[in-house]
Amino acid sequence: MGDIAVAKKEGVNWKQVGLFLVLTFGLTWLLDLALWLLVGYGQNVTTGVLLQLQMLLPAFCAIVLGMFVFRDSPLYTVRTNKERPRWFFYYFLVYTVMYAVVGVGMTISTNPTTLTVAGGVTQGLTILGLVILIILRVVSGREAFARAGLADGKFVHWLLFGAGFVLFYGLQTALNTVFRLGEPVDIMQFMAQVAPAQMGQVESMTPPVFLLVAGIQAVLLSPFIALLFGFGEEYGWRGYLQGELIRMGRVRGILLLGVIWGLWHAPVIAMGHNYPGYPVAGVFLMIGYTVGLGFVLGYAVLKSGSVLLAAFLHALNNQVVGFLSIMVYRPNDPVFSFGVGLYGIAVLAVIVLLMLRDPSWLRRCA
């Protein structure tokens, strides 16, 4: 693939956008095809690893194109000027390739020992990536990271948006409970099924205390451990693509991005992810959800200037939704429920409409 030299301009560079989308959708849907044909979608370790690999692909594609193809990209400048933050991007590329290798190995072998070792390797590589990011940030400084598109943003934005996500999904769970749209989870029975080795730890606490500890972990610890997965999507969608599409107007650009993001999920949704039993309606619901969530994440980036904040919020979103819907209160129907269901999307739409009252949405983007 040769270099593409493009002068900066006010309009969307559709040639670059098209190349990014073809590469991202192509690799992702090829992975989904392999998941469907070779593994089959299910609640197993291999499926989980392949879905995590899928999350890494948007950033992988954006980084490859930004560092080696798009000469007007900040990443191209960071690489050619040999600035320190480039090492994090190099690591992320290697990390994605290693994750793919592990995923292939897990697809070929179903030996329990192999799966355990592979899971440990992926977790170790993920934590190493977070450590490298922190070390490079300390050594390089704020300005170097900002030039590489990895600005920190203000702590108040991390606090307010993070708290907003937790409150939103807490409200969704409360509404599911009030309208009896599901069943409370028997945490002892659940842990006995999914993690029997940890039952001693569970039994040493009362169920409310265990849920409190697990909830704190889901909010304060797990999002940072899962930061690289959030970064995998957010650097591609919010870090690169949003910056291009908002040149057509912030509202229109982020709306289009939300539709693209939802369609990117279509194969796994059709296989039963998020909306099991609704292969077609689930795709449309996912698009509605990603449009709403895309406006919130896009707003967070516009206000803070930080794609790292979006990565954290994405990871927080996934962890909190998983914790509340799996360990606290499980909806009976994935469509007719609050949270990521139809009613939750309606609430999210109201929040987005209120958010759009901010005058900053009217600013033009050069």
What topology does this entry show?
Layout (H helix, E strand, L loop, with lengths): L13 H26 L5 H24 L5 H7 L5 H23 L3 H29 L1 H6 L7 H24 L3 E3 L2 H8 L4 H5 L3 H19 L1 H19 L4 H15 L1 H6 L9 H24 L2 H22 E3 L10 H14 L11
Antiparallel strand pairs: 1-2
What does this structure look like?
The chain is mainly α and 366 residues long. It folds into two domains: 150 residues, no CATH class; 216 residues, no CATH class. The chain is built from 16 helices and two strands. The protein has a two-stranded antiparallel ribbon with strand order 1-2. The radius of gyration is 20 Å and the shape is globular. The N terminus is likely disordered.
Largest sheet entry? 2 strands, antiparallel
Order of helices and strands: HHHHHHHEHHHHHHHHEH
Overall pLDDT metric:
92
Q: Estimate percent helicity.
A: over 70%
Strand order of the largest sheet: 1-2
Outline of the structure:
The protein has 16 helices and two strands. With 366 residues, the protein is an all-alpha fold. The chain has two domains: 150 residues, no CATH class; 216 residues, no CATH class.
